[in-house]
Write a structure and sequence with these properties.
Blueprint lengths: L2 H6 L21 H6 L4 H20 L4 E3 L3 E7 L2 E5 L6 E5 L2 E7 L1 H9 L5
Antiparallel strand pairs: 1-2, 2-5, 3-4
Amino acid sequence: MNSSARESGAAPRGLSKADERPAEEAVFDIARAFQAPLDADLGDMLTRSLCRQIREALLEGKVVDLPGVGRFEIRDKRRYGLVNPMSGARADLGGERAVVYRPDRKLLRDLNSSRGDV
């Protein structure tokens, strides 16, 4: 759905207005869970569950985009070779996978605007 259809409130193709779930409706409202005093076990469980889901998605080759937080993806580092100057032995290094995090633009803007020296 393009942005103009989203802004106009039009239902996506194949769905009537009654069948459409509002985009703002959260599946699990984590903010509500943290308003009440939260015991450490529940907080740890939520954190581990989120990290596990991100890890599984990255291992499947998916890009994880968390709106308002940022984007996680896997990048392959390039391989390069080295030569030991003392022995002349060659070694291949690199080629590992790395997790790359790019913060959301709104998050960066909010963080930079909240500094005291701005």
